[in-house]
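Quick one: structure for this chain?
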Amino acid sequence: MFRTTVEKLLKEGLEQKQNLFLIDLTITEDNSIKVVIDGDHGVTVEDCMFISRSIEHNLDREEQDFSLEVASAGATAPLVNVRQYKKNIGRTLELKTNDKVIEADLIEATDNNIKVQWKSREPKPVGKGKVTVQNEAEIAYKDIVEAKVMIKF
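Got it. Here's what it folds into:
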């Protein structure tokens, strides 16, 4: 019942701030609640405080002892939600699929797959040496083992 109440309060909080979305919700045996959120335009400290308050202010500590942590998805955390892919269009991803690992630019994200582009060095068709080739692929979300945004300085 405690989990159901927390999920309901979290859902209500996210409905009030529609640019935010849930990445993960964990509730342990000792009622330690951890919420990880992301946003279409990033997540501010105020966003985390808003979600925290929407949960905490509606639970009774006299009735249930709990701890609550609300955090944003880290910059190095893997992408797990379609909205995360859509907000990162134009950025470079490290993609791991079942058969390869590539570093590619995310150029499109739909509800079912992503489209990426990358350059690779391949042997010339005739003669010695290598030539740079522009590659493009559509990859279904179900085929992605892990995807992370590459941070460039």
